[in-house]
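SAMPLE LOG
Freezer: B-3
Tube label: C17
Construct: single chain, 221 aa
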Amino acid sequence: MQLPIPYFHIVFTTDHALNTLFRDHKRAMYDLLFQTASEVLQAKAKAELGCELGITAVLHTWGQQIEEHIHLHCIVTGGGLRLDRQKWVKPKSKHYLLNVVELSAAYRDKLLAGIERLVQRQEMVLADEAAEAALSSLLAELRAKKWEVFIKPFANPDTVTAYLSRYVHPVAISNYRLESMEKGLVRFRYFDNRERAEVGGKGKEKVLTLTGEEFIRRFLL
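STRUCTURE (predicted):
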């Protein structure tokens, strides 16, 4: 059951340069991702609204082209309990929850610092000193990049549960998206995420052709 309040859809995406690290250290990295997203959201809500948010998060590890695309889908309450738990605090408007630019930077910095901490504490063991040096260089590059957290209000709170359910028990690709499988090639339909961000909505549907081997490799990931 949903509360009679606004809800926001928030997506925390990881840089693809971290894919190998996630693949080799799943438990440590996924725990860190969930913890980081929760902590930066609650910290921003405390600073801007003086409240504690309600958060439901689901891990999604692929994109429309079934490539590795590790991100969290979060459903977040529009406002929350005041820190003394005596009153419900509303957001500034049903279209605005938190400063997304500051949230994005905080998420980037906290996630990268968390990775360094895991290595320092040997909770994530790398192959050798060369691997540690390469990781240190990579993290420095990622800190210099702009990361973008996605925040959008749900048009109707009743859609929240239905939306989230699609991410709880999915497969990487459904049969209806398959166009053909012949001569060692697989063709399937997808929506381009980058185009979708530019035009809004789903953008134009496209068809991707992969070799059977590449299709299976992506599906197994």
